[in-house]
Amino acid sequence: MRGWRGLVVGLVCALVFAVVGVGVVGYFVYTEARVDDVQSVDAIIVLGGEHDGREQYAMSLARQGVSENIVLSNAYWTGDKQMAAFCATTDPRFTVTCLPPEPGTTRGEALFTRDLAAQRGWTSVLVISWRYHLPRARYIFSQCFDGRILVRDVPRRYDFSLAEWEYTYLYQTVGFVKAALQGEC
């Protein structure tokens, strides 16, 4: 009986240590991730995910003269009315290009960025995503794109529960491992 208690206590302690470790490391890697200053670039690349203001933020930056090109990752279902409206945006200060990533991941978005850059002579991009995806997005884009890569987060607040933070940090970490295993594009 005593052996089982020790095993259970040991497993519980290991689980608590793992949860706390993911939270502490995740905070410093993802919450405190480096965000680049806004600078002029050849294109603003908006990663898919959710309509959390990222498309509007990119258009606001383009209106301020950051870039004449916006590329929206159209990773959404075909009936997404918001995405259709963003893709139909016309403004004399910039052009909007909408592309579905293949594969439908950050790597797919980095691949279409690489291809567009080669076709259009781009040497710099500003990648926009949500805050906790930035380190992984920077890493994946650096595997696929040889130019200057800047990353910015969508200006918003995240009111997550402790469990949601843990999941977010763990998800991003697993994504990093996957990207490292995939290697260069």
From TrEMBL:
Parts of the chain that traverse the membrane: 7-30
Domain (DUF218) ranges: 42-147
Transmembrane helix keyword on record: yes
Entries under Pfam families matching the protein: DUF218 (PF02698)
Protein name per UniProt: YdcF family protein
UniProt keyword annotations, A-Z: Membrane, Transmembrane, Transmembrane helix
